[in-house]
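ok, trying the design again with the full structure, not the truncated one.
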């Protein structure tokens, strides 16, 4: 067995040019596929980060009817026991209480619809980092009676610091709520839509304004990442019962999930085409190799080599070609993509402006998730195994007499 493997390895280098050309085609196929997959997954990771870090968190706990009918009437009482139950899970980083509502923001004769967020300032910024996005004024403090508003909303209402913002909305149980609040800060929110409508209030100020003392619409539960979310979500869904419900960001943002999946499907089609090109490259080399060595094979069989031994040697040669291409492709793509992940490619011009309009940073991001490299290795390895069937069948059907006479 060992002698046959050594023979297969030596056979590869009898025609170095042919072997290197085939290995190179696999190498570039693996490199391009890994690069494309990394770029796709990097953009998906950034999209999820925007959804998670600038609004929803990885999971939220609501009153069970809230998500279908986002009314303040479907809020729930703050329960420290519930918060403690959530925090006891080792992968939960922190729990953020919120009270959300909608209303009309007005200044002078100008009015615009607004999203009102009642937050605990020091806890909220752990997730969203909104304290670092203040462009004018200051961030909210505990027991602050002012508001922080989006830059887009401030421009529309022609407001500046210390100006008074009038908010009209429907409070708890249908009560009318109206109030005047000084603008203590203006924030440049990453989301263009929220930037044009967001109003942040300190939680107790918001509860008092809406007549919803001690009420919350959500508890944001944050974990280190998607895999941790999947593990923790399963446990929380089994623990948290009516009148509460637990939802992941994927359940709350199905349009984002659908967008990622449809784009990923398009990427799969491109990779399939690339793999077909690789497969034909390997297959063509194997066919040429067998055709060129017919007389050699005839001699080997004539002096006593069994056909199954010859088939094994040819299969191992095919496997070696595939493995050399895979290993070289992974060896080059891995450090390259690590560098790219740390140094995303900046975009300029109209493309950059378009991405900023949609709330994305104008960069091409890359991912170095292990699955990116293992996916390429497994795919090409399977292709090589399938192509390796051809020389096995060809050798088992080989006619030594015809090969010796060149027919």
């Amino acid at each position: 067995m060992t002698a046959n493997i050594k023979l297969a390895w030596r056979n590869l280098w009898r025609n170095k040019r042919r072997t290197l050309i085939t290995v190179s085609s696999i190498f570039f196929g693996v490199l391009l596929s890994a690069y494309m997959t990394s770029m796709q997954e990097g953009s998906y990771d950034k999209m999820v980060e925007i959804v998670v870090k600038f609004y929803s968190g990885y999971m939220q706990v609501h009153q069970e009817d809230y998500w279908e009918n986002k009314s303040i009437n479907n809020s729930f009482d703050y329960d420290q026991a519930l918060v403690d139950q959530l925090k006891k899970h080792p992968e939960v980083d922190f729990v953020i209480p919120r009270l959300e509502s909608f209303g009309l923001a007005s200044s002078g004769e100008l009015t615009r619809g607004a999203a009102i967020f009642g937050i605990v300032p020091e806890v909220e910024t752990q997730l969203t980092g909104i304290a670092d996005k203040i462009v004018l004024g200051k961030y909210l403090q505990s027991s602050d009676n002012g508001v922080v508003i989006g830059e887009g909303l401030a421009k529309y209402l022609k407001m500046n610091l210390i100006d008074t913002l009038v908010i009209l909305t429907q409070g708890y149980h249908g009560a009318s709520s109206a109030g005047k609040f000084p603008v203590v800060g203006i924030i440049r929110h990453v989301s263009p839509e929220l930037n044009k409508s967001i109003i942040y209030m300190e939680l107790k100020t918001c509860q008092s304004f809406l007549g919803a003392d001690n009420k919350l619409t959500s508890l944001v539960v944050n974990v280190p990442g998607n895999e941790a979310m999947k593990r923790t979500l399963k446990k929380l869904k089994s623990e948290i019962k009516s009148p509460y419900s637990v939802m992941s960001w994927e359940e709350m943002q199905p349009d984002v999930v659908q967008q990622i999946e449809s784009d990923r499907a398009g990427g799969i089609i491109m990779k399939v085409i690339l793999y077909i090109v690789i497969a034909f490259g390997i297959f063509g080399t194997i066919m040429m190799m067998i055709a060129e060595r017919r007389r050699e094979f005839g001699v080997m069989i004539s002096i006593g080599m069994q056909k199954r031994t010859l088939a094994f040697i040819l299969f191992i040669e095919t496997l070696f070609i595939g493995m050399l291409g895979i290993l070289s492709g992974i060896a080059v793509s891995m450090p390259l993509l690590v560098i790219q992940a740390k140094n995303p490619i900046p975009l300029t011009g109209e493309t950059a402006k378009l991405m900023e309009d949609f709330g994305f940073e104008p960069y091409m991001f890359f991912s170095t998730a292990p699955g990116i490299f293992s996916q390429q290795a497994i795919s090409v390895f399977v292709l090589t195994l399938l192509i390796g069937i051809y020389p096995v069948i060809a050798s088992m059907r080989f006619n030594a007499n015809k090969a010796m006479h060149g027919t």
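Keeping the full-length input from now on. The chain has two domains: 2-51+256-404, 59-222.
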